[in-house]
Design brief:
The protein folds into two domains: 173 residues, HUPs (Rossmann fold); 91 residues, Pantoate-beta-alanine ligase, C-terminal domain (Pantoate--beta-alanine Ligase, Chain: A,domain 2). It has 287 residues and is of the alpha/beta class. The longest helix is centred in the middle third of the chain and has 16 residues. Helix 6 packs across helix 7 and helix 9 runs antiparallel to helix 10. The strands form two sheets. Strands 1-4-3-2-5-6 form a six-stranded parallel sheet, sandwiched between helices. It has a three-stranded antiparallel sheet with strand order 7-8-9, covered by helices on one side. The termini are far apart. Helix content is 37%, strand content 19%. The structure holds adenosine monophosphate (AMP). Adenosine monophosphate (AMP) binds next to helix 2 and strand 5.
């Protein structure tokens, strides 16, 4: 296992990748915003199992943050990220500066229009998927990987990226990675470090309530009723709920009952100024 090489420019990135291509090696990309945790590392390991060469991008993408959001405050920890990746089979850490990604006169955006981008995150963060789609398209074009790994933790983002890749004929396999959780069920997130102890203690309620709701729905309980009590339960734990909804797992269209599945339950909720998201599948069958 060798130390990953850190590159900051497209030209350094592309000459390294050209060498991989010449050797006919498969290349995987794992896009991240850094502040790496075990969830990211699980995606990296998944990538290592599927390609000879792995590129991890680290870029806090300004275009997916609204002016009032935490772009300035978002953790930037390149040194410890590089240390964490040194233990993995990563070839390149691609950490471009803002100007490398967005020229001063940058004027083009990729804008998901309806489909899986409709509602949920888009209601709370209307700018979000435009920013994600734009930066993911750029990263895919810069790296031109055979496959790119995205976490199920950001379920709607995963579906938006899959749809975009299909719609725009980008020609890359999008590989989903399962959500990595703390022992108490809280999904790992770079934003968990913002949580005060009492909010950290309350936070696993999100996953617990989603799981309980998924079981009830799988046993035939009416979705609308289950989701209303899920909202109350999450509020009781101290959250302000942005949404908690049952959707078709791929199209993310609203679903009236579990027969119109596969169904996914998705939540976004705020506690003590930190916004957390999570999602779980509704198990198939009646048990
Ligand atoms: P981020 O750095 O938060 O933008 O996330 C980069 C990638 O890591 C995205 O594909 C996320 O879905 C994924 N990711 C974030 N948290 C987790 C987690 N707890 N388990 C698995 N993947 C995750």
């Amino acid at each position: 296992m060798s130390q990953p090489r850190i590159v900051h420019t497209r030209s350094d990135l592309q000459s390294a990748i050209a060498a991989f291509r010449k050797a006919r090696e498969r290349v995987a990309l794992v896009p991240t915003m850094g502040a790496l945790h075990e969830g990211h590392l699980a995606l990296v390991r998944l990538a290592c199992g599927k390609a000879e060469r792995v590129v991890v991008s680290i870029f806090v993408n300004p275009t997916q943050f609204a002016p009032h959001e935490d772009f300035d405050k978002y953790p930037r920890t390149l040194d410890s990220d590089a240390e964490a990746l040194a233990g993995e089979n990563v070839d390149i850490i691609y950490a471009p500066g803002r100007e490398e990604m967005y020229a001063a006169d940058f004027s083009t955006r990729v804008l998901p229009d309806g489909g899986p981008a409709a509602g949920l995150e888009s209601d709370a963060r209307p700018h979000f998927f435009g920013g994600v789609a734009t930066v993911v398209t750029k990263l895919l074009l810069q790296v031109r990987p055979d496959l790119a790994v995205f976490g199920e933790k950001d379920w709607q983002q995963l579906q938006v990226v899959k749809r975009m890749v299909r719609d725009l004929d980008i020609g890359v396999d999008i590989v989903p990675g399962p959500t990595v959780r703390e022992k108490d069920g809280l999904a790992l997130s770079s934003r968990n470090r913002y949580l005060e102890p009492k909010h950290r203690e309350a936070a696993p309620a999100l996953h617990r309530v989603l799981n309980e709701s998924a079981v009830l729905i799988s046993r035939g309980a009416p979705i609308a009723q289950v989701m209303t009590s899920a909202r109350h339960e999450i509020e009781k734990a101290g959250f302000t709920v942005d949404y908690v909804e049952a959707r078709h797992a791929e199209t993310l269209a609203p679903v009236a009952d579990a027969h119109h599945g596969p169904v996914r339950l998705l939540v976004a909720a705020r506690i003590g100024g930190t916004r957390l998201i999570d999602n779980v599948p509704v198990p198939h069958g009646k048990d």
